[in-house]
């Protein structure tokens, strides 16, 4: 072969070897790429499976949490119902306590009433001395001169006798029924109220005033064992109710009734002395006229029926000459008073009485007169 042929053959051989090398490298490269792709695919597939499992686990946990939340909400609902029942029971117990306290006061007053009747019977058996007769005459003269508001004759015109219906110790749910009856009968009366509103009607004090009745101060707490310990205690309680009624009604009352009355033996027992000697001038100094009663319906002591209450009023009206100041109670336990009221009104109307609310000086009904 000549040199040219050799050179051409060398070139061809070189090209064949180069192409073979390139082809092998490309094949190896492609094989490597294929392996990496498989590994990547496997890894990617495993990652997606792991995430799916995690999501499934989270959904399961959320389901458990929702179930627990539902259980807690159910428990909270049960607890709320129990709390509501407890609150309702507490309200019932408070009402029962009020009734029992009222019964205790009734029994104490009944005891005092019996003691007074015994004293009256004993005094009737003993003739009065000349000194006592003279003292009684002088006291009567002093009483007629010590009323700063004038007499009933000064205040009321006409010749028809007047019946003043008075209700103590409210307001309660019975007060609402009493007001309804009075409205139906077109009658105005007097309510000696406390600060303990058990009527369930927030505006009950304003309703009393707006319907033309007189609103009287009967002390805020009506707690004998506290108010009668001292003059300061009594006046503080009285003026507390005065401020309370001012806020409730926009007016200030100028009439009051002592719890237990102006001759209350329980007041003397609590104070340890005759505290009325000091209280009566003090309440007059503060602008009040005070009223007791000349007919006791008897509803404050014992559990009288409506007929028994009516009979007490009838007997009292036969005994009293002139105007009547009748004591009733409209506290929680006095349902028979509500039942008796229409009967009493009908009885008194038949006898010719008209009805009016109390105001300072309209009638003289004081168990204990102010000193000169």
The whole-angstrom Rg is: 47 Å
Q: How many extended strands?
A: 8
Give the overall shape: elongated
CATH fold name of the largest domain, please? TIM Barrel
**Which second-level CATH architecture of the largest domain applies?**
Alpha-Beta Barrel
CATH homology group of the largest domain: Glycoside hydrolase/deacetylase
Could you estimate the helical fraction of the residues in percent? 55-70%
Q: Approximately how much beta-strand content do the residues carry?
A: 5-15%
End-to-end C-alpha gap: 171 Å
Which helices and strands occur, and which strands form pairs?
Layout: H1 3-125, H2 130-145, H3 152-155, E1 162-168, H4 173-185, E2 190-193, H5 204-210, E3 214-217, H6 224-227, H7 231-249, E4 255-256, H8 265-271, H9 276-285, E5 289-290, E6 295-296, H10 306-319, E7 324-329, H11 335-350, E8 354-355
Helix pairs in contact: 4-11, 10-11
Characterise this structure.
The protein is built from 11 helices and 8 strands. By secondary structure, it is of the alpha/beta class. It folds into 2 domains: 22-127; 155-355, Glycoside hydrolase/deacetylase (TIM Barrel), CATH 3.20.20. Strands 1, 2, 3, 6, 7 and 8 form a 6-stranded parallel beta sheet that branches. Strands 4-5 form a two-stranded parallel sheet. Helix 4 packs parallel to helix 11 and helix 10 runs parallel beside helix 11. Residues 127-157 have low confidence and may be disordered.
């Amino acid at each position: 072969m000549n040199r040219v042929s050799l050179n051409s053959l060398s070139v061809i051989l070189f090209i064949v070897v180069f192409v073979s090398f390139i082809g092998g490298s490309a094949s190896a490269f492609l094989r490597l790429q294929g392996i990496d792709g498989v590994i990547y695919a496997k890894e990617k597939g495993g990652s997606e499976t792991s995430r799916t499992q995690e999501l499934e686990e989270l959904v399961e946990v959320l389901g458990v949490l929702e179930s627990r939340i539902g259980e807690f909400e159910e428990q909270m609902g049960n607890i709320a119902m129990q709390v509501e029942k407890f609150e309702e029971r507490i309200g019932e117990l408070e009402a029962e306590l009020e009734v029992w306290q009222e019964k205790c006061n009734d029994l104490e007053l009944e005891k005092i009433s019996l003691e007074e009747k015994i004293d009256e019977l004993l005094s009737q058996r003993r003739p009065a001395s000349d000194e006592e007769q003279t003292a009684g005459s002088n006291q009567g003269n002093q009483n007629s001169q010590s009323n700063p508001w004038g007499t009933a004759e000064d205040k009321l015109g006409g010749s028809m006798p007047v019946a003043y219906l008075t209700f103590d110790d409210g307001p309660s749910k019975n007060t609402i029924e009493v007001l309804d009856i009075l409205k139906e009968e077109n009658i105005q009366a007097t309510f000696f109220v406390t600060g303990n509103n058990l009527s369930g009607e927030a505006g009950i004090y304003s309703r009393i005033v707006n319907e033309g009745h007189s609103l009287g101060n009967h002390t805020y707490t009506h707690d004998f064992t506290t108010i009668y310990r001292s003059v300061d205690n009594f006046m503080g309680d009285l003026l507390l109710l005065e401020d309370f009624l001012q806020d409730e009604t926009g007016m200030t009352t100028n009439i009051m009734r002592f719890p237990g009355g102006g001759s209350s033996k329980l007041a003397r027992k609590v104070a340890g002395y005759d505290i009325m000697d000091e209280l009566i001038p003090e309440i007059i100094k503060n602008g009040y006229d005070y009223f007791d009663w000349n007919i006791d319906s008897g509803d404050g002591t014992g559990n009288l029926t409506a007929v028994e209450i009516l009979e007490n009023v009838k007997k009292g009206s036969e005994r009293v000459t002139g105007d009547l100041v009748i004591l009733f109670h409209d506290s929680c336990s006095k349902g028979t008073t509500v039942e008796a009221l229409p009967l009493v009104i009908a009885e008194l109307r038949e006898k010719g009485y008209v009805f009016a609310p109390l105001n300072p000086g309209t009638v003289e009904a004081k168990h204990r007169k102010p000193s000169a």
